Amino acid sequence: MRSANPSLGENTFKGLRTENGMSMTIQGTVNKTFILFLLLCVTAVFTWHQHFSGNDVQAWLWIGLLGGFVVALITIFVKRAAPYTAPLYALLEGLAIGGISAMFESQFEGITTQAILLTLGTLFSLLFAYRSGLIKVTENFKLGVVAATGAIFFVYIADFILRFFRMEVPFIHETGVVGILISVAIVVVAALNLVLDFDFIEKGAEQRAPKYMEWYGAFGLMVTLIWLYFEILRLLSKIRSNR
């Protein structure tokens, strides 16, 4: 099995066995994902309200981004802790999402609602396509998505490093046609990662992974959804700026 999602890597379920007769199920993972989504919304509403109340949310953003990154790493390396770390990750990421979304909303009215609807629409459309067999997760499909995701990751790392020298990777931040097309491609790759996540969670249930892996699977799915949401938000902002 292979996934471009770092939390659902090739060896995620390796060596794991059912404990106390309780094993991972798809429905259980769906329930946990819904819980994480609600927790994310709680803190997102908080920073959203803080921003529109005139308060500086920069501190909350950094707490959310850096804290979420650290907790994500802990979750990836200590899977058994997922029932505790996955909810914490959702709460922390909510702080960042709420603040960043509010900033975009201040500049482009209605953009947040559009991004949320597009993210959820993409999630359910791809889930339907996967469950109905319209999308086949072949080995070549996995290789292609993983390669494309890796390329995007290295471009973002390069851009991050170049910014220390007051430079940036060409086109990826531009609002012209090329910049928009690049964002569209990144959104497509992020969306296709959802298909790999669905497949990976299904394989985990088939292998009767321990019950706590439901939280881990939900965490992995949230990682992809958050990435997809941010990329859709950036794409919409580029389209709005180009009008």
Q: What secondary-structure arrangement, pairings included, does this model have?
A:
Elements: H1 26-52, H2 58-77, H3 82-107, H4 111-132, H5 139-163, H6 177-206, H7 213-241
Helix pairs in contact: 1-3, 1-7, 2-3, 3-7, 4-6, 4-7, 5-6, 6-7
Task: Please tell me about this protein's structure.
This protein has helices at residues 26-52, 58-77, 82-107, 111-132, 139-163, 177-206, 213-241. By secondary structure, it is an all-alpha fold. Helix 1 crosses helix 7 (213-241) and helix 6 runs antiparallel to helix 7 (213-241). The chain is globular.
Structural class: mainly alpha
Question: Could you tell me the strand content as a percent range?
Answer: under 5%
What integer is the average pLDDT? 91
**Helix-strand pattern:** HHHHHHH
Total count of helical runs of at least 4 residues:
7
Low-confidence stretches: none
Distance between the termini: 43 Å
From the spread of the alpha carbons, the general shape counts as globular
**Annotation, overall tally of beta strands:** 0
Radius of gyration: 18 Å
| Major sheet summary line | none
Helix content: over 70%
